[in-house]
Structure formats: C-alpha cells, structure tokens
Design brief:
Helix content: 10-25%
Number of helices: 4
Strand order of the largest sheet: 5-4-3-6-1-7-10-9
Largest sheet: 8 strands, mixed
Number of strands: 10
CATH architecture: 3-Layer(aba) Sandwich
Number of domains: 1
CATH class: Alpha Beta
Distance between the termini: 16 Å
Radius of gyration: 16 Å
CATH superfamily: Dihydrofolate Reductase, subunit A
C-alpha cells in the first residue's frame, strides 16, 4: 500500500539545518553533524534503514530552498535519487537537473503527480521545513519519521516553527537507537 512519508533529520532542539544555510553551505554552519548517522557514524543498522526507505520509494518531494541550496554543493549538480523528484516552488529555477520536475501549483499537485509516477511505492517528502509543515497541516501524509541527531544546534532552520494550531496525533511504530541518531517512526493518526 502506497504511503506518503515525511522523513527528515533534526537536532534534539528541533533544527533541520544549522545557521547560515546557503548555496555554498546547504546544511548551514555545523549542520553536517546532523547527518553523521548517514556518513561518519553510519552503522549497519543506519544503512539498513536508508536502504529500506530508498527501496520502497517511488518518488520524492522537496521544496525549492532544499533544491536550490543542495543542487551544486551537496548533490554535485546531479540527482542523488534513483526516482523522479518533484520540487514545490513559486517559480521555476534557472538551474535544472535531470530527474527533477518543478511544481508551481502547490503541495496537492506535487503529491498527485508523485503518486501517479510512484504507482504502488511510497512518496518520500524530505523537506525542507516549510514543505513538511504544509503536508502536516494538510493531513495528506501517513507517517512522520524523524532521525534525531545527538546535538543541540541552538539556531538554524526549525522543523516545527509554523505548523499551525491543530493537534496532530501520532502513533509510535518503532524507535531505533544508533550512535549517530535516534530514529523515531510514527504513524499519523487520521
């Protein structure tokens, strides 16, 4: 059964990127330690979690800021994904990478297109904060998976600053602890 999964890494104090996010530094000052569980501190368990996510994914949705800041430095000018990626944006950027489609009509249109392409596989919504907040507020997603890095950043881009006033109830599916992150998997109660 196809699911819409919000999946992101954040610091213990709620930041998904360090301060000074830019094209030259797509995860901000000191933000790389958020992703140690994928790189420097990756264990077999971390690797298995990533493989599970990727193997079950049929399409990815990102925001324009994630695309614009990661295109050159983090992604090296090519897509790191083996599936189609939909970028939610107000205007289509000048720099385009093969495998990315640009959606100016909003999150519902991006999701409709992603679901059609993904067929029976999951849709991975990976950010940024604004896109994840929009999907949470719209009740269009099935799971929220957060990889909590063992660090306090104190500043940067917060995941939950603008989520609205409606309560969102979660049902814990699993918790997995590795040296680089505590992996929290929740079902979103509808």
């Amino acid at each position: 059964m196809q699911k819409v999964i919000l999946e992101i890494t954040m610091s213990l104090d709620g930041f998904i990127a360090g301060e000074d996010v830019s094209k030259k530094n797509p995860i901000g000052k000191d933000g790389i330690i958020l992703h140690d569980w994928i790189f420097k501190k990756k264990t077999d368990v971390d690797d298995s979690l990533l493989r599970e996510l990727i193997e079950n994914c049929g399409a990815v949705i990102v925001g324009s800021r994630t695309y614009e800041t990661a295109i050159d430095v983090a992604w090296g000018g090519s897509s790191p994904f083996s599936v189609p990626v939909f970028v939610i944006c107000h205007s289509i950027p000048n720099a385009k990478i093969d495998g990315f489609s640009f959606i100016t009509e909003g999150i519902e249109t991006a999701l409709t297109k992603a679901k059609a392409i993904a067929t029976d596989k999951n849709i991975w919504v990976m950010g940024g904060a604004n896109v994840i907040q929009q999907y949470l507020n719209s009740n269009l997603c099935d799971e929220l998976n957060i990889h909590v890095a063992p660090v306090l950043l104190f500043e940067g881009t917060r995941l939950f600053d603008l989520t609205g006033s409606s309560k969102i109830q979660l049902r814990k599916k699993r918790v997995i602890d590795t040296p680089g992150a505590t992996h929290l998997y929740y079902e979103i109660v509808k």
